[in-house]
Amino acid sequence: MARIIKHRAVIQDNWQLLEQESGGSLPSDGDFVVPLELWMRERDTLSSRLGHIGVWLQTDTDPSTIAQDLARFDVIAVRFASFTDGRGYSLARLLRERHGYRGELRAIGDVLRDQLCYLSRCGFDAFALRADQNPLQALSAFDDFSEAYQASVERPEPLFRRRPEPDPQRKAA
Amino acid sequence: MYRYDEIDQRIVDERVSQFRDQTRRHLAGELSEDDFRPLRLQNGLYIQRYAPMLRVAIPYGLVSSAQLRRLAHIARAYDKGYAHFSTRQNVQFNWPRLDQAPDILAELAEVQMHAIQTSGNCVRNTTTDHFAGVARDEIVDSFVWCELIRQWSTLHPEFAYLPRKFKIAVSGSAADRAATWVHDIGLHARRGAEGDGVDGAGPGAGVDGAEQDAVGFRVIVGGGLGRTPIVGHAIREFLPWRHLLTYLEAILRVYNRYGRRDNKYKARIKILVKELTPAVFAQKVEEEWSHLRDGPATLIEEEVRRIEGRFTRPAYARLPPKEAFVEAMLAAEKGFANWHRRNVHPHKVPGYAAVTLSLKRTGAAPGDASAAQMDAIAGLAERYSFGELRVSHEQNLILADVRTSDLHALWREIKPLGLAAPNIGLLTNIIACPGGDFCSLANAKTIPVAEAIQRRFDDLDYLYDIGELDLNISGCMNSCGHHHIGHIGILGVDKQGEEFYQISIGGAQGADASLGKVIGPAFAREQVPEVIEKLIEVYLAERESEEERFIDTVRRIGIEPFKDYVYGTNHQTPRRNSRQLAVA
Question: Chain B contact for A114, CB < 8 A?
Fold first, then answer.
């Protein structure tokens, strides 16, 4: 079992990630995150298992391909081959903001401390950091910035809509 | 100047702390070079040929006296006593130490400056017309819109790791002085719901007045220079101002998702636009925008007015439009008249003028300024121009609000400072990247080439006879010297380890932007001034009148006559009609 960050705390993770299709069938219990291709092919079998099911996506996945299935996942993981692959950030926002996904959204792969802040603002709430990273030390990254200009999953309104109303008397003048 | 509020300041301060910690971890061996590189780049720090290079943002080119003094201080305390103003309206220090970079950023934050996103594959500093706010043909004050874009793009969580760098330019005037057609996104302000009327200019950001007169933007995408120079495509003729940020977001998202990441030379948005075709790209943007349109990021009038209100404005005096004293001095002093003709520009307020301080004196690297010059210029700005300056993409500094009655005194002060070269718009106002003397990407040096050309054309009468001519030099295909849009463009190339220079003609910036065509095989460095001279000889012989500029002649007769003469396939000397006429 690995330690991951979820909701800004380090927890023990019970999910097992199925890297590739092994050919055989999954055990009927246990929580698995399976590749998208496997899900697409064996949706019904996978749904009828006792254990929980999640799916992992490449950063270039078109989210509309699983839009109808989102309620059936407890976890969606996005795999970053490199932390500089910005597609994962757009994918997260689309899953959250356009398709209304509310379950756990986990960043996996080349995930480092210094990207947590942006990843979190784009809608990721769980992070399986790269093996050399210390998740406890990484927690402070969420507090690197106390404010942001843009609308994001964390703050659905941009800063300019969250400012206090200007003084009505000054406005009239 | 835009003045930070408490939140603007806090974000910049927090950025300094974040980068200080990242640098500390890197130097302690906890953050590898590969993991650190994108972080330092997004804080402006390159590792250059001899030392790191720190690029500091000058948002939309606007800088105050206090900020310029701080830049001078940084040049002295952390560098070798000078700085370089770039074609992107930024300023670069060529010799800082990596471990001191956080201290420099902290010093900048104290004067409301930063180096955020001045490099890396993210949205860079937004550039605009260096005559914004003072130009007579202004439709809106582009500074307000640039600041809105600056805030929207600063630390944008979704667009920090784009396929490649991303540059936005805004023009608020009828004439395009911001090269909007050769940027990833170009925004061209217009007025009227249909975008048919571009006059009706009023002050400010343009959100006032009736809806049919409100400001909007023509949106141009996919232009760019570099390895694959392309003039952009207008994908929307009129985008009402409220939708500016959601529409930018839609473009960036389409690019972020679909732009190529397998080959850095094909990763700019221009390649995506070209491969999809502009029409298909526009469809994708419109589809994406249909989800974002009227969402929370839609701009509101209160915000535009708030930003507008945070800009200080010059308190202009009521002055007569003409000064008898200036008129007399123009008649009496030829040096002043020459400078006035080239370096003084019209202003929308009677009795004021904008002045270019030339950083193109022969013998100085184009765009370089010493700490002493910067301090002196800061003082001039305070005494002559409300304490503000602009950096132009031609690598000069501009005092935008000088009383015409002060022009002569100003000229006398800047002459000994080496800032009065009367060459704006002329051949010796050479735009050049730092080149192989500094940059690790460069194939060839640029500074000695610029100097050799300036020496060849040191006769002012000859220079004035040649008239308007943009000459741009880039040390490599990355085209930081914008050689594609120079009337004459010079590109440093590497041939088996030797520096050579490829020459193109016929490029232009502005509303009729075009890309230059290469005239033939490249030349050795020492041949370059002579080749330029030959190009000029052909022009002077062929031009139909003194009003016909070099670029006009190239467009009229094509590049063949130039090519023939330069490469000696036509051994006849060109007809010398107009040159002789001019000299006579």
Answer: yes
Return the axis-axis angle of helices B334-343 and B324-332, rounded to nearest 10°.
Answer: 120
Q: How far is B245 from chain A (nearest CA, A)?
A: 10
Position A173 scores a pLDDT of: 37
Kindly identify which residue of chain B lies nearest to residue A61, measuring between CA atoms.
Answer: B257
Closest of B469, B474, B495, B499 to residue B484, by C-alpha: B474
A11 or A170, higher pLDDT: A11
**Domain range annotation of chain B:** 6-110, 127-309, 324-414, 431-583
- Helical H segments across B267-323, by residue range: 269-276, 278-292, 301-309
The pLDDT, as a whole number, for residue B474 is 95
Q: How confident is the model at residue B510 (pLDDT cuts 50, 70, 90)?
A: confident
H-run or E-run covering B492: strand B488-495
- For B431-583, the fitting CATH number among 1.20.120.450, 3.40.50.2000, 3.30.413.10, 3.40.50.300 is 3.30.413.10
Residues of A in contact with B297 (CB under 8 A): 150-151, 158
Query: Helical H runs in B90-187?
Result: 101-110, 142-153
Contact B35 A85 (CB under 8 A): no
B261:A166 CB<8 A: no
The CA R_g of chain A, rounded to the nearest whole Å, is 19
Judge: A114–B157 Cβ closer than 8 Å, yes or no.
no
How many CA atoms lie less than 13 Å away from B112 in the CB half-sphere?
A: 16
Question: Which is more confident, B176 or B379?
Answer: B379
Query: B571 Cβ partners below 8 Å, 6+ apart?
Result: none
Q: Which of the 8 DSSP states describes residue B222?
A: S
Between B365 and B283, name the one with better pLDDT: B283
Averaged pLDDT score across all residues of chain B? 91
Q: Is A67 near chain B, with CB under 8 Å?
A: no
Beta carbons of B157 and A150 less than 8 Å apart: yes
Closest CB to B155 among A84, A145, A158: A145
How far, in Å, CA of B302 to CA of B306, rounded? Answer: 6
B299-320: average pLDDT? 95
Of A43-57, A96-110, A145-159, the range with the lowest mean pLDDT is A43-57
AA letter at B518: V
Domain spanning B127-309: CATH 1.10.510.10: no
pLDDT at B326: 84
B6-110 and B431-583, same CATH topology = no
Q: What is the DSSP letter of B113?
A: -
Is A161 an 8 Å CB contact of chain B?
Answer: yes
Rounded Cα distance between B536 and A103, Å, is: 69
pLDDT of residue B535: 96
- Minimal Cα–Cα distance from A50 to chain B, Å? 36
Interface A-B, measured as beta-carbon pairs within 8 A, has a size of 97
* CATH 3.90.480.20 at B324-414, yes or no: yes
Return the CATH fold of B6-110.
Sulfite Reductase Hemoprotein; domain 2 (3.90.480)
> Is B264 an interface residue toward A (CB < 8 Å)?
no
Closest CA to B129 of B186, B193, B192: B186
| Domains of chain A, each with CATH number or no CATH | 2-146 (3.20.20.70)
Query: Closest by alpha carbon to A121, among A153, A86, A76?
Result: A153
Across the interface, of B7, B15, B157, the residue whose CB is closest to A118 is B157
Tell whether A149 lies on the interface with B, counting CB pairs under 8 A.
yes
Interface contact flag, B156 A157, Cβ < 8 Å: no
What residues of chain A lie within 8 A of the CB of B7, using their CB? 147, 159
